Description:
The protein is of the alpha+beta class. It is 44% helix and 16% strand.
Amino acid sequence: MSLPEHLLPYTEPIPVLDHGFVRLVETWGKGDAGEPEAGIIEAARQSTQGSFRGWEKDEKLLSFLFCNKPPHATPFEFAGMVIEVRAPIFVFREWHRHRQQSYNEMSARYAPLPDVNYVPTVERIMMSGGKNKQAGAVTGTEVNLDVEGAEKFRSELIETYGFFQEDYESALAMGIPKELARCGMPVGRYSQMRASTNLRNWLGFLTLRMDPGAQWEIQKYAEAVAYICRSQFPRVMELFDASRN
């Protein structure tokens, strides 16, 4: 099975939002056969001491494992990957709900976080058609947002980021410990982490975070993760994509 050119392994960071990215670090799951995704088949055949027989014979088994109701999910834990992610802190707060992943994030205690912040576009702010039900619940009346209001929010957000950065740098210059100087860190500030888990859990992440009900920002990150998964686990992802249609 040869990959289309647009699904070839992506070794460069995939841009996400205005300053974020997702980058592949490494994958596993080749098993004894040394072939991508073969470790899944080998794990499934462990109970009978069988082995990988080549995709001409084992494509059907992979489909059975994935498509059976309920699926035979544990073999998909014998493949996985590590990625590096730069995202706003509020995206990481959502991401960290996936407790089956392992995380290691850059620390604002030991080094200042770079002055890089997320500023949503007017189009993103207006995505709900200008109607903000949450705001209406707070004020007691329906709130209709227009383009002028969205642009005003962007301008004030950029200004607020600037004020915080000045205060942050001033605190550091005074000798305030980094872990305290960061107390006012806005959740729109970008941070960076590595995330690692097996393929079964990556598929769970994609199922939840590519769903239209997920927040738009984390949907964009999930789409980048899915792109990498398609390049590294094409057979599994073909089954996954078909299951979502």
